[in-house]
Every structure is written in structure tokens, then in C-alpha cells.
């Protein structure tokens, strides 16, 4: 039975990630693409890509609750000699002072933060600060 | 309708407060692996109950199940605070059994340990979303606090509106840099301590009473 994965990648997935040869496939997923998905569908989309060895870049990142569930689901999928987990990097959260008064008043919290996620055994963070994330991606 | 809803909410808050005042608060001790969470949990438990919570080790993921020590009564300035301490496994986004092989472990033991560790981290995340009333976030003050796990966990804690106390542990070690932790999370108060040596525990208990009482 097709699950959330089929729902989000069947339409325009150029391939299933298996024929990337020596290259590294990078999926850059727009905020618009993620907008209509449930939290679990987002996590499935990310983990399916990462488990295929791809690097997933989210234009707008995940909410704290979704990040929590991503860690939880990742842990349940780790298996020896197969999948050792994920490396994930985002810019540090913007200070609350950056939010507009109206946003604070309405309780709106922006979660928009570019997020890079990859297989833990293939991606290594070299440097990270407020403005730059530098990562080393190794081939399969 | 809005007035009635507000009135009902106000009554609910008052009655909840009356009945919940004596209920122990569940305080989760969170942080990355090897920050000294179990050492701290044991220090608190021993100081106030005489018992320990669990074994401590320099090998990462020694704690692979959330462990609870119930009804720890802390007295501060004539005020008594009752908490349940929940010592949680160190949170991470990756676990590779090969890392345990460096600690003189056989492959079978390393694989079992990594499997238990992943289950423990998943359990800890679940506790954080569902089952704790406050968080003590423990960091090793000799290491860089600007990690993704720390950033994400503090964000998750803040999004749940949980009271959170950040502890900069291992101040007894050379290279300890408490200010770096304070700079990393300026929106929170950072308390320095050495859970191992028992340094500055007085201030820690005062803050626990203040934050979670």
C-alpha cells in the first residue's frame, strides 16, 4: 500500500537514488513542497532520502516538535552496518528579539531556517556559525 | 462565550494549582552523551535521599533507559520542594556500534549497547514531549556548546514552555569555559558546577527550588 512516501515523491522524483554512481545526490526541498505535508510525512520524506544516501536540504526547516520526532524516528531506524543515523545542521535559532512585536503578540514563531540533513556516515560538519555551515560530504 | 471560557479556565487553573501543589514535579535531566547527567542525578539523590540513581561511566551511552528517582525532597530557605528526578540517556542523532569497539568491547556487546542506546534516546525524546514538567539541561563546560543537538533540544524545550535550568558541568576540569555556555544560550541562566566534586551544589539546589518549586 502506498504510504506518505509515494504521496510526496512519486510525481517528480527523477530516480530512486540508486543510480547516482560516484556522485552525491542533493535534494533541495522548498518550503512550498513541505507546506502541505503532515509532520510524519515530512519526516518520512527526509529519512527516505537520507537512507538512500542523499543529502536533503530544507528551505524552511522543521518545527521543534518535528525535530523531536525526527530524532525519535531516526533512532528507531538505526541498525548495525546499515544505517547509523543522521547528521543535521541548521543556522542557530534567531534571537527572539528578531521577531516582530505582532509575531510575539500572536505567538507566531518563525521556524524558517535552512536545514541540511544527511547520512551520519557520509556528512561531516567542518564549521558552523550564525552565517555559514560548511560540510564535507563523502561519496558512497 | 469568551467570558465563560475565560472564567472556566481561571477556575481550572486555581483548582489545578490547589491539587497539584503537593504533587512532585517530574524534572528531566537532559543533555548530550557524557555531559555528567547521571553523576548529577546521583549527587542530587545521594544528598537528599541517600540513594543513587544509576551507574556512571566515561563510556558514552552508559545510561540507556530513563531512570526515575521519586520523591526527592529538597529544602531551601525554609521551603520544601518535592521532585522526581528523571535521568535520561544522552541525546544524539547518530549511534554507531563501532565507536564502542574502541572501549575494549566485543562486537556483540557493542551492537547490543548501540541498540539499547537508540531505544533510550527515542524514549528520552518521548519523555520530553509528554512526561516532564521541567528540564535540567547539563552541558560539559570543557566542550563546544554550539552543537546541533544542543540547539535543537533547547529549541524543543522552549517550544514546550518548560522551565529550564542550564548547568555548566565539569568546572573542576582544565579547559572549563562556563562563559561559552552562557554565550550560547543567553536567554537562559547558566549555573556552573562540578557534579563529581560537589562544587557549587548549594546554588544548584537554590535554583532548583526557585525554578521548579
Automatic annotation (TrEMBL), chain A:
A Pfam entry, by short name: OapB
Annotated spans, Disordered: 1-23
Acidic residues compositional bias, start-end: 10-21
Protein name according to UniProt: DUF2073 domain-containing protein
Protein's organism: Halorubrum ruber
From TrEMBL, chain B:
GO biological process, one term: tRNA methylation
Domain (G) ranges: 26-170
Pfam families membership: MMR_HSR1 (PF01926)
Any single GO CC term annotated in Swiss-Prot or TrEMBL for this entry: cytoplasm
MF annotations from Gene Ontology: GTP binding
Transmembrane regions: none
Superkingdom of source: Archaea
PANTHER family reported for this sequence: TRNA MODIFICATION GTPASE GTPBP3 (PTHR42714), TRNA MODIFICATION GTPASE GTPBP3, MITOCHONDRIAL (PTHR42714:SF2)
Name of this chain's protein: GTP-binding protein
Source organism of the structure: Halorubrum tropicale
